[in-house]
Amino acid sequence: MDFTPRDRDVLARTVYGEARGERWLGKAAVAWSVLNRVAIDLRGDGRPDWWGEGIAAVCLAPWQYSAWNENDPNREALLRVTVADPFFRECLAVVDAVLAGDEPDPTDGATHYKVTKLAWPKDWGPQEQAIVKPVIGGHSFYVIRS
User: What is the reported pTM?
Assistant: First the structure.
């Protein structure tokens, strides 16, 4: 998959904002959820690209990765973080491994996830239509059928 330095940076910041408290595998799973969305768009599946084209666009699409939402308390942290932060350095290392193909997809193709202990998001449609994927760390992963 092609990516730019900006894609790498935005993906690492997304992982930082969404999963910096997770272990390596949990961080990789969040990164893979982005790449799985990008891959669906790149395959030309005939669906509108509502969640964006390319890594940075998928991460930054409105209301997709909540850490980027204007009202999310993590947003300011992910915008300001630098490589001086050890958690961000690990997020960069995870992203590098994922982008290099050295970290396989632990989500089995998941495009969505939620904090396991939180309720099902109403805007995802009926939970019965979701294809359940693994629970990794504090997140449950899914493919949402549309």
Answer: 0.92
